[in-house]
Amino acid sequence: AERLARERHGHYMDQFTYAERATDWRGNNNIAESIFAQMRAEWLDLLARGRCHVPCLGFDWLDAWWEAFAGDQLRLFVVRGERGRLLAGAPLLWQRAWCSGVRLQTVGFAANLHTPRFDLVLAADHDAKPLVSLLFRHVLAAKPAADVLLLEKVPCDSGRLDLLRDVALEC
Known about the structure:
Blueprint: H1 2-7, H2 31-38, H3 40-49, H4 59-70, E1 74-80, E2 86-99, E3 102-109, E4 121-122, H5 128-141, E5 148-150, H6 160-170
């Protein structure tokens, strides 16, 4: 499809890479929200199996937060296992921000003043480091590229701070 669009001087838009900008066949909602809604049972299952007990990561809360605050800036990064089962998830927000007079592309947790705590969701029955490493690699490959990765509001008692630092240093 991409080659055909190029040859015909058309425009190619991968519905999964750019899901937040694409609409479904009805034209009244975007594909990203539709995919997220279809993942409800999987997300709830991952939360039940997960190592994270942050209420703001519940499906209904994320869905409402996405609609109220994020628009097309929210992206949900996930890692699936060999059989397609969800093993990790990271709802991340792409934003432009000023820092010391420089305009930066930031990527951070889908959190704001209404979100006192946030974290990654990782299946407890898998080694956390490879899952976080895969999430980071997907984030680093995403467009637009991030200038700054803001991982705020991670609970000190989650055990993730050292893990996030170690994986960030490796990437």
